[in-house]
Specification:
This protein is an all-alpha fold and 167 residues long. The protein has 7 helices and no strands. It folds into 3 domains: 54 residues, no CATH class; 42 residues, no CATH class; 65 residues, no CATH class.
Length: 167
């Protein structure tokens, strides 16, 4: 939305409501109208979307995978994107089999860029030394807890098997 305003030569901010009243209220009205039209379309097409659920998984799964591969390829027109899609699909399958929750993975994908930029900044400040992450007691505790949480599921499963074998 901000990019669209800048393309039209409008300066986003509180003064936009004062200087371009007609445009702002027209934009708000178009959003309301778009939501109403979207609601009508969704309510009228629900039976068709529900019918997709009756298609057997053995038919619909390959179709979904092909559509995802086409989407991944069209982003940069590179086969590497399709390979990455497959790799992360396999990782997701393994995580599902190991009962890893989905929320931390989504959180990692959302915050990954920020974490990478902060890691790069820390590496520059410490001149490439990883000891900056263990120098402070609080940071060391947080890192240790993070590692413990990362390996908790596999360790718990391994210890559970050993307990069952011992009994």
């Amino acid at each position: 939305l901000l990019g669209g305003l800048l393309i039209w030569g409008l300066q986003p901010g509180p003064l936009l409501f004062v200087e371009q009243k007609e445009f702002v209220w027209g934009l708000i009205a178009s959003m309301y109208l778009g939501n109403i039209v979207g609601l009508i379309i969704v309510l009228t097409t629900v039976p068709w979307w529900a019918a997709i659920l009756r298609i057997p998984f053995s038919i619909i799964a390959p179709v979904i995978i092909v559509i995802c591969a086409i989407g991944a390829y069209t982003v940069h027109n590179a086969l590497l994107d399709v390979v990455l899609m497959i790799v992360f699909g396999v990782v997701g399958y393994i995580f599902k089999k190991l009962n890893y929750p989905l929320a931390p993975m989504v959180l990692a994908l959302v915050l990954g860029d920020l974490a990478e930029a902060s890691f790069r900044q820390a590496m520059l400040l410490s001149q490439g030394s990883l000891t900056i992450f263990w120098a402070n007691g609080l940071v060391a505790t947080i890192m240790a807890l993070g590692l413990l949480m990362l390996f908790w599921q596999p360790l718990n499963a391994l210890l559970g098997r050993r307990r069952r074998v011992a009994h």
